[in-house]
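pls read this protein:
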Amino acid sequence: MQEQLRMLLRTAALAAEAVAARAAAPYQAAQGLRIKQPTRLRIAPDDIRTADATVAEEIYNGYFSFDGKVVNARGRSPFLLDPPSAAWRRSLTGFTWLRHLHVSDMRLARENARALVAEFIELGPISQRDPASEPAVAARRTLSFLAHSPLLLDGAEPEFYDSFMAALTQAAKSLSQALLQGRARAHDRFLCALALLEFAICADADAQLQSRITRLLMQELERQILADGGHISRNPRILLELLLDLLPLRQLYAARGLNPPKALLGAIDRMIPILRLLQHGDGSLALFNGMDATAPGKLAAIFMHEAPDPTPLDALESGYRRLSARDSLVIVDAGGSPPKEFSRAAHAGALAFEFSLGAERVVVNCGSPGVQHEFARESARLSAAHSTLVLDERCNCQIAPLSDRKSAGLIVAGPGEVRAERRRSSSGEVLELAHEGYARQFGMIHQRTLALTDDGRRFIGEERLIGTPSPAPFSPREFALRFHLHPAVRAEKAEERKIVLTLPSGALLLFEASHFSPQIEESLFFAAHEGPRKTAQIVISGPASQKMRLRWTFRRIEQFERGEEGAQVSAP
């Protein structure tokens, strides 16, 4: 008995030691990153985001416009004002706006930039409740300070020079602690590691420190960038922003005569084609999983670094598929929900698609609103905000409510593996798709077939509901098949089962459905640069059953006539 007791005590002691070691490990690792204050910066990375000199004039006059909120400082420091929103505060203290002052020809732009940075530094330690202290904001501020250090330090007084270097060093230490102690959110870890590495290269830190920080970034690169170049969140906007930071890092290695990690070069080369795959003819990126209005200047800056003759291929691991013929293009979300920790902005849009003709978008998803319309973000994530089939107005995945403090906004259950197979028919390319997002609650599988003819004149789809062998707690009453239209498209009912779409160019499309009468209803397009816009959607609804089978077609036509009873198609 005593021997058993001694063994139990020994086992408990070993377990306690292991727990203590694991708890101490992050602290010891953080202590191991001995970041010293540099006496100078050897080099400054480029900021390849577009800049506008007129913004510099607004800032000089005391107007700070971020995320849809404009504040007139009226001679006071903007850092001491009550921010109109947390997003505004993040943008102010992230200092990305320094790029506008950097390109300005204003004589006082340099002094203005230096004075504003000095005001922020003089605030001293930042409260943990201040958005400015968030790891992602600190990382963005570090990148901005490094990129625009020539603007700030050229001709600066020694006192400012020293305080600037101290602020950079403190930010780097904060980032290392956030990474190694797990305080940075999953999707922010990449940015934190990247900012830390740029600091080490610009400050000419010792080789051992650079090597350790490089390993941190390579770990996040391996974790977050998929084999096909997509981001693990499946959010095109995150991929876009990461490339705008990774490309200057690659240039930084070249400028210093250093060999960049092969994993970094390979990731960049894989990431850019994914953006091509998701791009419509008008330059916009498809509105999936958190994508909002596309900034053309950002894409242009990235594509300047593109490899010759890129070929947009299916993003198999990222879960996106593409059909194209002539000037017709279909982009499909054929992926499951991302890992929980990366799902905060993901949408319930399984099997949704977007359809465009040349530079004109026809069928879209509602998209994600900008931060100035954050109140609408949760609505935009719902399945009903996507061009797909919905059962009883329920989402095809489960999103934790905002009242859930631990998991607010995360997708806690959703479609697992989504089936997506490409085949060739006698007239064009075909995608066979299916997801099980409704299997648990309704015992139903949504199957969708999409086909585009080789001449690009017909886009054909078929929807089916298939029962699962296992019983479900509920039986769906109704399905609703939605096709959200771009605000520039005008829809008009023609005959009982036909709708005519008129594009801005005057091109006409005829939408037809079998066995069901499509209706035109109101919708909202969240991803407009000027904010949400009213638009229309085609909706087909009916009883949900295992026998449901619906075929629809978008077909180009030459003209139609308006008779006494409405529009009449007059040419095939």
